[in-house]
Amino acid sequence: MATPCRLLLWQVALRLSYHVASGERRTSHRHPGQVTPLVTHLAPPPAGLCPGGADIFVRVSENSPTGQLIATLSVAMEPGANAVRLCLTGAAADWFYLEGRTIRLNSSASRVLDREVLGSVLIAELTCSEDDVIQSRSRILVEILNQNDNRPAFLEETLRPVAASELTAVNSVVFTVKATDADGDMISYIIDESSPDARFFRIDLPNSGDVVLDKPLDYETRTRLQVTVWAQETNTLEEFNTSAVLTLDIQDGDDQYPHFLPCTPVSSGVPVCLSPAYTANITHKQQEAVVEFSPGPIRAQDGDRGIDTPLLYSILSGDDHGRFVMNNRTGGVRLTRPVNRRQVMTNFTLVVMVCQEDDRLKFSVASVLIRVLSQNLHPPVFNSSTYKGFVIQSSSPASIVSTYGNQVLVVQVSDQDFSDGLNLNIHYWLRPPSGLYQVTQQGVLIARTDRLHAFDRHVLQVVARDQESGEEVWASLDIEVLQRGQPVPRGAFTEQPLFGGVDGRLAGGIVGTVLLLFLSSILFLLLRTTRRRRPPTTTDEHSTVAVGQHLNVVTSSRPLFPVDESSYTNQPSGSEGFQGRQGVYTRRHSQLPPPSSSSSPNIIIISDPGSRPRLDPGPLAETPGTRDTLRVSDVTEELEAPGGEGGARGGSK
Questions:
Q1: Which stretch of DSSP H or E encloses residue 7?
Q2: Nearest 5°: phi and psi at 347?
Q3: What is the largest CA-CA distance in the chain?
């Protein structure tokens, strides 16, 4: 149809006369979806100079710049008064423009020739008219050549997180990823080995996009895995690639057995628990009571925490004919009847089991020990509220703490609930915990002497706990570190903590000085008190002293007491002489001779048989009547006080 029409047009054009007309280039506003033809006015060519209507086929690379030459037209024309009009029409006409005898690419920085957007071919039409009569039409076919200017892109629907049970078999396909390349390049898929969970996956066929599980899953260890996958071009020089993160959410599967609490793992990283040993204490008086256990109530949980299957509890053995019953839902144990005091068995051992309600082949067992105790009437008591300890500085790594008299310090408690006061269930420890000291369960303190320093002092608490009743008592520990060679004090009153940090000789000198001053003050006060209380004496009292029984009297010509005769003349005549028991002097007037001015007072040296001679008042003869006593201190005063009353009297003589 196109060829006959074209011939008809040529015939019409030849028969018509040429008319010279001026042409104007028409422009119009462009609307969305509307193609604006590009028109170029040329000088009127000779008859039959428009293109013969042959199609134009051109190949252009995508992303070509603006002004790229598309085609050169075979129109011979000279500028003149008449015009030949060339017009570009068609859907892709706006991608071209006419410049003289050439057709060029109409692109820009914001309007790029993109094969992936426009397609592989651009089609336009070139119309040649003379005097508004169409002389020819030519199709312009521009093939856009592909360039590798796009990276692969993953399809979003293949990147969504996937959930899989932990029981999923190894070698199962868990992901199927898909990436596309706008340039149509071939793509292969690779796992990024640097991703943390890459060891769980592998890709067997790089072009398929299937990610296979390479290791078994474990919900109790990991609940989510992530792996990075790369999509890469394989048939291009650039080898563009892109990455995506795949997420696998692990769902819990019923592969674990229930276990009792608290859970003690067999080893690190292994989700297997050792069943605890439950213990409880009851008394003979308890009846119809719920038994409380240690380290806690009998409880269990399903090993598959994501499923948490309901559990059932039961007593397998040891219930003593229904004495103990267990709640099969909560695990609580109740005592149904009291224990007879005359019963030989004092302990009950129960074996309890927990199993899944939906699968009773998945179970665990635990042992329960119930001790029957007498009623606890007396708490444990330390034999002292404060213990004093001493440690001698040493390079030895350990030594035993001693107390007064260098005896081993032993901290112990007594319990009146036992006949001998010894409770074997007492457990000792120090509070706060110390790295310098530790206490044995026999109450002996051990010190780390290589970490101690002389003159240090440590105050701690020792705690004793009755493991059966749970009662706790404590006492204070006061431990001093002695320097090398320093003896341990013999008693509390021999301690000298005031001089603990002073040299021994200096401390001895200070103590001696203090004691000497103290004794001097006491002696001075005694002499002063005695001098005030001394009674008046007569002349006869200084001449003769009667000697008591079992005493020797030795006289000397050297006067012991200076006597002034005139000083006694004014004394009353009723004075009595000295008499009395050993150590006490009494006066008795009938035994004293008259005073003599030519004779001096006698020195009386009194000694017991078989002992050293000493100055002693001794017992004197006594007479009935009123007696005044004179002690040895009176005689001592006369010896040590020459400036006293007697001395004054002797001076006046």
A1: helix 2-15
A2: -130, 145
A3: 206
548-600 pLDDT tens trace: 343 333 333 344 334 343 333 334 334 334 343 333 333 444 434 444 443 33
Which of 343, 282, 357, 267 is CA-nearest to residue 312? 357
- Of the candidates 334, 232, 239, 322, the residue with the CA atom closest to the CA atom of residue 293: 334
User: Residue 637 and residue 537: Cα distance in Å, rounded?
Assistant: 14
- Burial annotation 197-206 (CB, 10 A radius, 16+ → b, else e): bbebbebeee
- Looking at the DSSP assignment, which residues form a beta bridge with residue 212? 173, 202
The answer to whether the CB of 526 falls within 8 A of the CB of 633 is yes
**Three-state SS for 541?**
helix
Contact 128, 135 (CB under 8 A): yes
- Rounded to 5 degrees, what angle do the CA atoms 342, 343, 346 make? 120
3-state secondary structure of 545: coil
Peptide bond into 262 cis (omega under 30): yes
pLDDT level of residue 258 (50, 70, 90 thresholds): very high
Q: Write the CA distances from 35 to 84, 97, 128, integer angstroms.
A: 22, 13, 18
Q: 516 CB contacts (<8 Å, ≥6 apart)? A: none
- Integer-rounded Cα Rg, in Å, for the chain is 64
CA distance 627 to 647: 25
**Cβ count within 10 A of residue 110:** 5
Contact call for residues 542 and 563 (beta carbons, < 8 A): yes
Cβ-contact 83, 121 below 8 angstroms:
no
| Mean pLDDT across the chain | 75
Using a cut of 0.85, tell me whether the model's pTM lies above it.
no
Query: Measuring CA to CA, which residue among 152, 209, 201, 153 is closest to residue 177?
Result: 209
Instruction: Please report, as a single letter, which amino acid is at residue 589.
Output: H
Whole-number Å distance between alpha carbons of 35 and 52: 25
- The amino acid present at 491, given as its one-letter code, is G
- Tell how strand 179-180 and strand 241-251 pair up: unpaired
**Structural tokens at position 593:** 């001779």
| Separation CA 553–CA 540 (nearest Å) | 19
Residue 495 to residue 486: CA distance in whole angstroms: 12
